[in-house]
Design brief:
The chain is an alpha+beta fold. It has a domain of 223 residues: Aminohydrolase, N-terminal nucleophile (Ntn) domain (Glutamine Phosphoribosylpyrophosphate, subunit 1, domain 1), CATH 3.60.20. Helix content is 39%, strand content 16%. The chain is built from 21 helices and 17 strands. Strand 13, helix 7 and strand 14 form a beta-alpha-beta unit. The longest helix is centred in the middle third of the chain and has 18 residues. The two termini are 29 Å apart.
């Protein structure tokens, strides 16, 4: 896991060591184990890399890495099936001087060209410079676990995090439409435009896409290389469970490949407990687990986490995030994320990865993705209500959300009049359950959660791996009938059936979902947070975003996932803007 940054430009003054070092310095937290820069001989391409050593910790595996006298790569992520790919490529005559997955990507690109990405099981963003054809090839993994941002100015600039682009001089103007959307809904992505960010001049390469940038023409091509089918296939339950078990086991086994210490997040819910059970079936029982505990909060699941850890011989470590530290951490979250964060759950996750760092565990498995793929959220139970008149329903939802945005009572009217024209509300047309799952997995909710997981883990130089996002497993689950996902009032039914008799019934058959949710309402009532909110409101009034009437408004805190958790969003926006300005 690493940080990458680079520039392709016909202005040779832009390809210089100072700019590349400055970009890399912004990404030092992503790669605390090493750093390197490189420019080609004619100074048309420059790369910067910060390294977190996970697979092949030797110096020969350092980046930027060169191959065949032609290709140079910088890469962030893991290719979990690199051993199998390496064997196949070696059989085809390719030579290797390391045992790293990085070199496997280079050989795969030399062999398959753009089609190489279809062969990877992993999370990745990378850039390969071809010094013969003068072409940059970039790609991002199927679900967007690893980030890739870019901007075009006097060439192409790219990086793992936005801050590195700003350090290279890219304009930091804010996208007001994204601000308005976040203030009204808490959404940090635009389902209508998957490349959009909170910065007008900066885009992100969408998940499951590659990009080619030609130096001579200064033009780029972006192409989607993978998608999941929503077509359902009838299969007997026993066969479905057998296949699901096999795919999950393969996924977990591959994600255990590491030359450094491993552990796992353990929330106490079905998804993370299911990973613990699969680890046990793979004869892995001596890992450390990491849990956030919220004593006295009704949604605290730390007792279940401790129970699962004990059952499977895992050593559980807990952290108790609190309001006092939250007030001091808001600025750090803004720095590491570069964009606003929607709930205090992000802070709680941040503290879990910090705990892993304290325990010297570098790689963690995590259960993220299961809710979107297996239909785990409670609102999925209502999906059939949206299939009666799908197009009409989607249109009504879009109109309602746009109306809600224009009716927000606390906004400065001048800001609203400009920002509302930059909002394009999109809701899915739902004919089947898979339509809704597809929207949440590939267009909306999951991407936001993956950004949180990446920034929170990398802030502490940790790597997080997600077994439920093995693409073959996801494709298989999408092919299952809706009745295998929602059945007799239970969400994620097929996963529950798989884990029945493996983990305690009170976890497997708990009917109402408990999300990873801290006591945000209680925290917001803390005196430190009340003062932080007061300062944030004053700042946003001066900025021209909020109406001055909010200064006289009494605090009315909300829980983390409440739609009207406006006060948290004000604090997050204020922290975001101040971080942008270096305040």
């Amino acid at each position: 896991m690493c940080g990458i940054a680079g520039i392709i430009s016909k202005d040779v003054s832009r390809i210089n060591e100072n700019i590349l070092v400055r970009m890399g310095s912004c990404l030092a937290h992503r790669g605390p184990d090493g750093k390197g820069t490189w420019t080609n001989n004619d100074r048309t391409a420059g790369f910067s890399h910060t390294r977190l050593t996970v697979i092949d910790t030797s110096e020969t595996a350092a980046q930027p890495m060169h191959y065949d006298g032609r290709y140079t790569i910088i890469y962030n992520g893991e290719i979990y099936n690199y051993i199998e790919l390496r064997a196949g490529l070696a059989g085809a005559g390719y030579k290797f001087r390391t045992v790293s997955d990085t070199e496997v990507i280079l050989a795969a690109y030399a062999h398959y060209r753009e089609e190489c990405v279809r062969h990877f099981d992993g999370m990745f963003s990378f850039a390969i410079w071809d010094d013969v054809d003068k072409v940059l090839f970039c790609a991002r993994d199927r679900f967007g676990e690893k980030p890739f941002y870019y901007a075009q100015n006097d060439g192409l600039y790219f990086a793992s995090e936005i801050k590195a682009l700003l350090a290279a001089g890219i304009n930091d103007a804010t996208d007001d439409g994204m601000l308005l959307q976040f203030l009204g809904t808490g959404r940090t992505i635009d389902p209508a435009n998957s490349s959009r960010t909170f910065y007008s001049s900066i885009k992100k390469l969408p998940a499951a896409h590659w990009m080619k940038f030609d130096y001579e023409s200064s033009s780029g091509e972006i192409k989607k290389y993978w998608d999941v089918s929503k077509q359902v296939v009838n299969i007997p339950l026993n066969e479905a469970l057998e296949m699901l078990d096999s795919l999950l086991t393969v996924s977990v086994r591959r994600r255990l490949r590491s030359d450094v210490s491993l552990g796992t997040s353990l929330s106490g819910g079905l998804d993370s407990s299911g990973i613990a059970a699969t680890l046990f079936s793979c004869n892995v029982s001596n890992l450390k687990t990491f849990t956030a505990s919220f004593p006295g909060f009704e949604k605290d699941e730390s007792a279940n986490a401790a129970l699962v850890a004990k059952n499977f011989g895992l050593t559980n470590h807990t952290v108790e995030p609190g309001a006092k530290d939250l007030a001091d951490t808001m600025g750090r979250l803004a720095y590491y994320h570069d964009e606003p964060v929607a709930t205090a759950s992000v802070y709680a996750q941040f503290k879990v990865f910090e705990l892993a760092a304290w325990q010297n565990v570098t790689v963690l498995l995590d259960g993220q993705g299961a809710d979107e793929v297996f239909a785990g959220y409670d609102h999925y139970r209502k999906w059939r209500l949206r299939t009666i008149l799908p197009g009409y329903t989607a249109l009504l939802l879009e109109k309602r959300e746009r109306k809600n945005l224009t009716a927000l009572p606390f906004l400065n009217v001048d800001f609203l009049s400009v920002a509302i024209e930059q909002v394009d509300v999109t809701k899915p047309v739902v004919r089947e359950l898979n339509d809704l799952l597809y929207f949440d997995t590939f267009c909306y909710g999951l991407e936001q959660l993956l950004r949180y997981a990446d920034r929170n883990s990398m802030a502490h130089g940790r790597e997080v791996r997600l077994p439920y996002l093995y693409h073959e497993l996801v494709s298989f689950v999408f092919s299952l009938p809706a009745a295998y996902k929602i059945h007799e009032g239970y969400t994620k039914w097929v996963l529950r059936k798989l884990m029945d008799d493996k983990i305690p019934d009170e976890i497997v058959w708990k009917k109402r979902k408990t999300g990873f949710e801290p006591p945000q309402r209680k925290w917001m009532e803390n005196s430190r947070m009340i003062e932080y909110l007061r300062e944030a409101k004053s700042h946003l009034v001066q900025y021209g975003l909020l109406d001055k009437l909010v200064l006289d408004q009494r605090p009315s805190s909300n829980e983390a996932f409440d739609r009207q958790a406006y006060e948290w969003r004000w604090m997050a926006i204020s922290a975001f803007i101040r971080n942008k300005k270096g305040v």
